[in-house]
Amino acid sequence: MEYSNVNLIVFLILILFILINETQSVYGEKANILKREKEDLELEKQLKILNKKPIKTMVTNFGDIVDCIDIYKQPAFDHPLLKDHKIQMAPSSIPEELTNKNISSSIFRSSNMGHRFRHDKCPPGTVPIRRTKKQDLINARNLLHKATPIGPYAYTLSPMDNRVVSIVEFSETKAFFGATAEISAHGLELDNNQFSTAQVWIKNGPDEEINSIEFGWMVYPALFGDSRSRLFGYWTADNHKQTGCFNVLCSGFVQVHSEVFLGALLESLSIYGKDSRILPVKVSRDPQTGNWWLITTKIIGYWPKEIFTHLTNNASILRYGGIAGAKPQTPAPPMGNGYLPQLKDYNKTAFMAEMKYVNEKGQSVNLNPYGIQTKKDATLDCYNILFAGNIGGDWEITMAFGGPGGMCP
Ligand SMILES: *[C@@H]1O[C@H](CO)[C@@H](O)[C@H](O)[C@H]1NC(C)=O
Ligand SMILES: *[C@@H]1O[C@H](CO)[C@@H](O)[C@H](O)[C@H]1NC(C)=O
Ligand SMILES: *[C@@H]1O[C@H](CO)[C@@H](O)[C@H](O)[C@H]1NC(C)=O
């Protein structure tokens, strides 16, 4: 009798335990659903802010949706620091790169004319903005350092392991007003856990508050949904903590060109051993407004002076190179053209030529070959960078970079 009583009590306690557990998990489930619903609402709100009502919508050959948005209503102007910003429609002087009469005499420059973007222009008074899909935001969020966006929806660089190779021009005395380079353009096969860039950095400020503008081409499947090479721009005003993002995933960059936009595909890529295709890039500070203009073969737009704290007057560091990112403990992606760099056959290497800085007068000036350092974050069988110095001709200051990646320590 006593025995069965104990049994009954044990049984009852067990039932009670299960019940409590169940209710807890039901509550837990409910809290999760609520959290997900809240996140969902937040994403929808954010999408509404980022995706303005289009005046016209275009679909590129590769399925990107591009909206033509009233130039005065583009996402940039949601930035709280740009409430009173007066839009600048063109740089105060036309960049010398675009007025160069001899442009077609260089193999280099003629080949980059292949960078056509297969869709229409936006109607006058509107600018093309690549439409942000909900999945893009979810992907971008999954790449965040911090889970919650702050202020004007900040996105930072991914929590991936980033390996960087670069040429650094650093000077405590010299102030830089821009940077320019001709970057070879390549295609890369990356998976969703990887990204790879060929880029220039323009920086100023102490490490913890570093202001940076980064631009060039990138392959970033988690951001774009494919492994294609695209024009990109990135900015931060606080060492990637709370401000900044890629392209127009947050407000900041002001688009003025009616056809070429951040995130646009590079349609003409180098063929290994046969042909080099170039993406010319330049970012320079407008001496009259202090805005930082992004120029490729076209004047694309600018990062306004207001969004920066240490890039208001000039830059103190320029870098030229690549970043290869991957989830920790997974293979690192290829960088450049996927081969280790060499200086013998430029059709078989990723490179940057005509590496210049912009001086106080707005002129593009060769980097000083004796004033640069090379920096490598990875073992030399993963990635490398080789500085060729001034090799003359149209090429001038030139370097080669990249590598296959793999299981890099
Ligand atoms: C154009 O470029 C070619 C080849 O680099 C050079 O020989 C020629 O002098 C240049 N012409 C002008 C007008 O700059
Ligand atoms: C690359 O190959 C093309 C086509 O064979 C050739 O015209 C060009 O000179 C080569 N470029 C370099 C930098 O070797
Ligand atoms: C560059 O910027 C710094 C800090 O804003 C400023 O003190 C310095 O005068 C600037 N240099 C030039 C040449 O404009």
TrEMBL record:
Specify the domain of life of the species encoding this protein.
Eukaryota
**Keywords assigned by UniProt?**
Signal
Q: Which InterPro entries match?
A: Glutamic_endopeptidase, Neprosin, Neprosin_propep
Q: Where is the signal peptide?
A: 1-25
Q: Where is the Neprosin PEP catalytic domain?
A: 158-409
**PROSITE patterns in UniProt:** NEPROSIN_PEP_CD
Q: Which Pfam families match?
A: Neprosin (PF03080), Neprosin_AP (PF14365)
Q: Does the keyword Transferase apply?
A: no
The answer to whether keyword Signal applies is yes
Descriptive protein name: Neprosin PEP catalytic domain-containing protein
